[in-house]
Amino acid sequence: MRQLVRRRAAALLAVLVTTTATAAVGVATAGPSQAAAGCQVGYRVTAQWAGGFTAAVTIRNLGDSLTGWRLGWTFPAGQSVTQAWGFTTSSTGASVVAANVDWNATIGTGASVEAGFNGTWNGVTNPSPATFTLNGVTCTGSSGSPTPTAAPTSPPPTGTATVAADGTGTYRTVQEAVDAVPANNTTRRVVTIKPGTYRQVVRVPSNKPHITFRGLGTSPANTVIVFNNSANSSGTSGSASMFVDGSDFVAENLTIANDFDEGSVTSGQQAVALHLNADRAVLRNVRLLGDQDTFLVNDRTRAYVVDSYVEGTTDFIFGGGTIVFHACTIHEKRSSGGTVTAASTDAAKTYGFLFYRSTITGTGNNNTTLGRPWRQGAQVLYRESTLSGTVRNAQPWTNMGDATWQNARFSEYRNTGPGATVNGNRPQLSDAQAATYTPQRYLAGTDGWNPL
């Protein structure tokens, strides 16, 4: 793989806000940092369980560019926010104000951002808020769906930590907890991790399947596994902060990052956050942070990533595995743009990368490509997703060496947003073809696996 100069991964902010669910009248707003001329909000419930739910909110700015935003809405009686990521929240009764965090502070004209939260509900109905405001201006075209688009999940985790750096858990490091799992175990082993920063390289070997890493913080930002290896010392595939080879791996509510400082070297190095080479892996409410080559999806991988956030600069999702990103935010952090994917799908393998009902964001405008083929025949599909103005409109695919995008299996289907123009450089699936390229088809394999 090519060598490029890196930057330190930006830290994100998310906070816990617990509110009392009481009926209120009107929509709470806050003083705008800049006036909005209009907006469109997409609201959907992605999971629910007894007494709680997870929702995703997509905000599209239809007016002037905003630097600093505040989204307001009022819940029906019996609903409230308990945990947020992608924004901070404050509430008065059922009226909520959601404000930007530093990494998504700006929304350009036509651009979108996505955030999410966990909440409580009364267990009888789970309706959508009827009205949203952006910086005090009522949004047009607000929409919502009370029906979950993902399978029901458990409430956010609580309890005594298995791992705690301060000594209050069973182990002080994540690796110690992995080492304690018996080889070839056949039962689920849940490693709960107390909030904190764990600067270490973590390896889950192939003979230790069925392991879950679960952060106990109020958001993924509270529990961080991070290291700063780079390709200069370990090669690209060996530079990861976390290596997962054990099948049936699950990660929930935590961050995996590589904070190698690309500005400290004269020639670039890749620096991987997560090297995933595990069958039937699930990442839920996880952040993956890096620069070039953040997330290596290796050949053995089948993985389902849901309600999560991935950021980087160049080829930051790459490899030959099969993966579905569902209701995720994929963020190009470099203002000069970059390439999101570098798939190396084997030509004999039908499915590679699927971005399903996800959001592509970035700090630049019209300068980010959706992918380039690391191997000829690579397969990538963006389906029913929101593509912000960061996506290069006329030509969103590019070549890598002798591998050309025209001979790769690159396509789109029913995407929306300012970066979703249809033209001769943007192959689109037909409705008939799309029936074969669903999340379930990507992940089923020969054993019928369906984590949705």
Q: What is the element layout, followed by pairings?
A:
Blueprint: E1 39-49, E2 52-61, E3 66-67, E4 70-74, E5 80-85, E6 87-92, E7 95-100, E8 106-107, E9 112-120, E10 132-134, E11 137-138, E12 143-145, H1 174-179, E13 189-193, E14 196-199, E15 202-204, E16 211-215, E17 223-227, H2 231-234, E18 242-244, E19 250-258, E20 274-276, E21 281-289, E22 295-297, E23 302-306, E24 309-312, E25 317-319, E26 322-326, E27 329-332, E28 339-343, E29 353-356, E30 359-362, E31 369-371, E32 379-383, E33 386-387, E34 409-413, H3 431-434, H4 439-444
Parallel strand pairs: 1-12, 13-16, 14-17, 15-18, 16-19, 17-19, 18-20, 19-21, 20-22, 21-23, 21-24, 22-25, 23-26, 24-27, 25-28, 26-29, 27-30, 28-31, 29-32, 30-33, 32-34
Antiparallel strand pairs: 1-2, 2-9, 3-8, 4-7, 4-10, 5-9, 6-7, 10-11
Family: Belongs to the pectinesterase family.
Region (Disordered): 141-160
Pathway: Glycan metabolism; pectin degradation; 2-dehydro-3-deoxy-D-gluconate from pectin: step 1/5
